[in-house]
Amino acid sequence: RKEVEQDPGPFNVPEGATVAFNCTYSNSASQSFFWYRQDCRKEPKLLMSVYSSGNEDGRFTAQLNRASQYISLLIRDSKLSDSATYLCVVNPLSGGYNKLIFGAGTRLAVHP
Amino acid sequence: DGGITQSPKYLFRKEGQNVTLSCEQNLNHDAMYWYRQDPGQGLRLIYYSQIVNDFQKGDIAEGYSVSREKKESFPLTVTSAQKNPTAFYLCASSIGGRLETQYFGPGTRLLVL
Q1: A44–B97: do the CB atoms touch at under 8 Å?
Q2: What's the rounded Cα separation, in Å, for the pair B74 and B34?
């Protein structure tokens, strides 16, 4: 079983749609969770951290469910510019350093 | 502007050749990392350095080497021992500590001739 698993997609949605991605992680001791966005042939960029209480940033909402070991990302009112790959990232707090485990990503394509 | 730079953007390697990828940061971050990204896979850690003059192997260090002589710089050498070097290489840095956000450079795409 992979440490961080994501549905690779692609999710094809029209502009204005609401779309949600889930990600599961295997290490129950994981402490920190993030969503990164990666555009084609570019570097990943931090989209948002995921807090236990959930957090919202504009059209983006992230949730953490520790009991079921998954995190989610909800995008409301999708824009063409949201088209990208979304990486789920987990810090298992192991190995004695700032270790991050990356999912393979979920691809989102927003069309007119 | 503070940030992380990587060069070159594209690099071509011949058989048996060692090549070095540059990574520089002016964020005053203590920790730096090298990752490799292959299609359909998550980023995998090659090497990391938590402080100057110290570095540790990550999950896939075989065929790679690094140095950390300056806080700002963390070059990666892809040696001839790395039999499948074609990939997108990403350098990252963070403040330090074990729960800090990592910020990425623009990446170097390495291709084998």
Answers
A1: no
A2: 8
Closest chain A C-alpha to B75 CA, distance in angstroms: 17
In chain B, the residue whose alpha carbon lies closest to the alpha carbon of A43 is: B106
Query: Are the beta carbons of A108 and A86 closer than 8 angstroms?
Result: yes
Which residues in chain A have their CB less than 8 angstroms from residue B102's CB?
Answer: 98, 100
Q: Is B82 exposed, middle or buried (0-12, 13-18, 19+ CB in 10 A)?
A: buried
Nearest CA of chain B to the CA of A88: how many Å? 9
DSSP assignment of chain A: --SEEE----EEEETT--EEEEEEES-TT--EEEEEEE-TTS-EEEEEEE-TT-EEETTEEEEEETTTTEEEEEE-S--GGG-EEEEEEEE---TTS---EE---EEEEEE-
A7: nearest CA partner in chain B:
B40
Does B99 contact A32 at a Cβ distance shorter than 8 Å?
yes
Tens-level pLDDT at each residue, chain A (112 residues): 789 999 999 999 999 999 999 999 999 988 899 999 999 999 999 999 998 888 999 999 999 999 999 999 999 999 999 999 999 999 988 777 788 999 999 999 999 9
A92 shares contact with chain B (CB less than 8 Å): no
- Give B70's DSSP letter: B
- Any A CB within 8 A of B39 CB: no
